Amino acid sequence: PELSGKTVTLSSLKGKKAIVLIFAGIECPRSTASEPRLGDLAAAYAQKDVAFYVVNSNWSETVEAISERVKRVSFPIPVLKDNQNRVANLYKIDIQPTAVVLDGDLKIRYQGLIDDHKTEELVKRFGDFTAADNITFDIPSGEIFGLLGPNGAGKSTTFKMLCGLLTPTSG
């Protein structure tokens, strides 16, 4: 259901040009960092019969807390609470944020990152120690990516930032 209590079903959206489901949470730094970009995308496609919804399936995030965040940041996209993870399980969502784009017949046309853009100048500092310094790369969709280097080179720190487990100092 929407935070207002209104129920939205995928079948009720059938026939739209596209349906964009963003699986995100209010406690996830990667999700909250994507809010402005998502608002811009939703606004750009509002007149093109594309429906945008954020789906929150995090058991620890209450409707009240989500509603407060949506109101505080003036988030323009409807947010649905997936209380029993039915929609997240249907699309096998295991990380956030994840975008699922469906066509008008509800077939998946894309599932993955919100933006396939490169990471630029990623930095992580712990006090005076710089664990990752100005890391920039571009990973095309479908590519396998890994980091090689000696102990202490910043590999784990970099992956933790990319997965949203560690907030970058900048980048």
Q: Could you describe the 3D structure shown?
A:
23% of the residues lie in helices and 26% in strands. It is α/β, with parallel strands linked by helices. The protein starts with 17 loop residues before the first strand and ends in a 9-residue tail after the last helix. The model has no long low-confidence stretch (mean pLDDT 87).
Q: Short summary of the structure?
A:
The chain has about 170 residues and is α/β, with parallel strands linked by helices. The chain has five helices and seven strands, in the order E-H-H-E-H-E-H-E-E-E-E-H.
Element order, helices and strands? EHHEHEHEEEEH
Give the low-pLDDT segments.
none
Tell me the helix content. 10-25%
Compute the average pLDDT: 87
Shape: globular
Over the alpha carbons, how many angstroms does the gyration radius reach? 18 Å
Please give the largest β-sheet.
Answer: 5 strands, mixed
Strand order of the biggest β-sheet:
3-2-1-4-5
Number of strands: 7
Structural class: alpha/beta
**Count of separate DSSP helical elements:** 5
Share of residues in strands: 25-35%
N-to-C span: 35 Å
What is the topology?
Elements: E1 18-23, H1 29-33, H2 35-45, E2 50-56, H3 63-72, E3 79-81, H4 86-90, E4 98-103, E5 108-112, E6 119-126, E7 129-137, H5 155-162
Parallel strand pairs: 1-2, 2-3
Antiparallel strand pairs: 1-4, 4-5, 6-7
